[in-house]
Amino acid sequence: MKESLPLAGIRVVEFVHMVMGPACGLVLADLGAEVIKIEPPEGDHTRMLTASGAGFFPAYNRNKKSLAVDLNT
Fold first, then answer.
1. Using CA atoms, how far apart are residues 38 and 25, in angstroms rounded to an integer?
2. Closest C-alpha to 23, from 68, 49, 65, 56
3. Most buried one in 14, 31, 35, 71, CB count within 10 A?
4. pLDDT at 67
């Protein structure tokens, strides 16, 4: 099924956080691109949101792969 999507075969590396960057990556992933989200070793800060932001991380990062990278070393 994913092969029939318009961006199938495209790979995107996502180095963003907060709202607009993950939203863009989400659209690309929903259109079939392989989106690889790069996170700091402690994880994206939106993983820890509570109250009205509690569902942000799973909602905006569906269909993505993730990798933790320590860019300082």
1. 12
2. 56
3. 35
4. 94
- 24-37: buried (b, 16+ CB within 10 Å) or exposed (e) per residue? ebbebbeebbbbbb
Nearest to 26 by CA among 38, 8, 14, 40: 14
pTM of the model: 0.85
22 CB-side CA count, 13 A: 21
* Cβ partners under 8 Å of residue 37, min gap 6: 14, 22, 25, 44, 61, 64, 65, 66, 67
CA angle, residues 9, 23, 27, in degrees to nearest 5: 35
Is the confidence at residue 8, as pLDDT, over 80? yes
DSSP 37: E
